[in-house]
Amino acid sequence: MTSCSAPGVISLYTIVIKRSLFLPALSRPHHAGSTHEQNAKPGIQRQYTGYWLIASKTNIDALDKQLMVDAVILDASIGPPHGSVAGQPIPPAHIVASACFLLTIPETYCNLNGVMHGGAAGVIFDMFTTCALGPVARPGYWDFMGGVTGSLNISYLKAVPKGTMIHVHAHVYQVGRTMAGQYLQVGYFPKS
Question: Is the pLDDT of residue 128 over 60?
Answer without folding.
Answer: yes
